[in-house]
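Thread: quick sanity check before group meeting

JM: Hey all, I'm pulling together slides for Thursday and realized we never actually wrote out the predicted structure for the chain we discussed last week. Dropping the sequence here so it's in one place. If anyone has concerns about the input, flag it before I start.
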Amino acid sequence: MESIALLIAASLNAGTVLAIASLGLLINEKAGIVNLGAEGMMLCAALAGFATVVHTGSTLAGFAAGMAAGAVLAAAFGVLVIWLNTNQYATGLALSLFGAGFSAFAGTGYVQEKLPEQASFALPLLGDMPLLGPALFRHHPMVYVCVGLVLALMWFLWRTRAGLVLRSVGESPESAHALGYPVRRIRLLAVVAGGALCGLAGAYVSTVYTPLWVEGMIAGKGWIALALTTFATWRPARVLLGAYLFGGLTMLQFHLQGMGVQVPSQILTMMPYLATVVVLVLISRNPTWIRINMPASMGKPFYPGA
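JM (edit): ok, ran it. Output follows.
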């Protein structure tokens, strides 16, 4: 039972990274923008967060630095694709490559650095419960903040006027423009907000999830987050469930290795990525379902007055 509790706890921790990044990308796509640069933004944010904690000793400052790094890179991406109408997919891939190269170059001096010892967290009373305590109630506060972000985004998108405007910009930017809404500015704000969340996820990786800096440490999590938005059909609650599913598959490899299961480590390592491909293939078998849920203008440029 203890091993099951540890597996659940590790799955929630790993899923938090994917969920926060996926929520940021979901905001982008709800506004009609596809950002393939999540991996690069998360790498730069991971470095920014780690370096900030090394110099200040504050994890909160590290989270803020990671969000700022993600927002700045996302803003640059937004200006290129929204105002200059560059291809969203090519620009996103360029951002991902830039983030990987820049973080590797700028992070060479932090490879051997160590972060201050962090205090353990547990919810009062609930953390002392057998099985459920270590499984659900002894996590870093960011795990619970992630659940709060999902609820807040659900409320924002479907219960507020601003959320309705954001969705209308993603569904029909021409109609939103005709009603007087500044489509480009709204899209840029959505891109920056999404970049900040991707940055938060990256900083969480380097300061809490695996508190160290190593080149390429995001290890494909940005790409899995992109796949999760499609897997969840652009619904925040499904993003959270999907993130925990993929987080569980990631942690299962270590759990099975610890149990002495005789399976090649390469097969266990590829399980999360294989699951991503399988899920996307299964979803793609029903293109009508995807078309109904996907924002209609996603990935398409907007030309005012055209």
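AS: nice. The longest helix spans residues 2-30. The chain has 14 helices and no strands.
JM: adding both to the slides.
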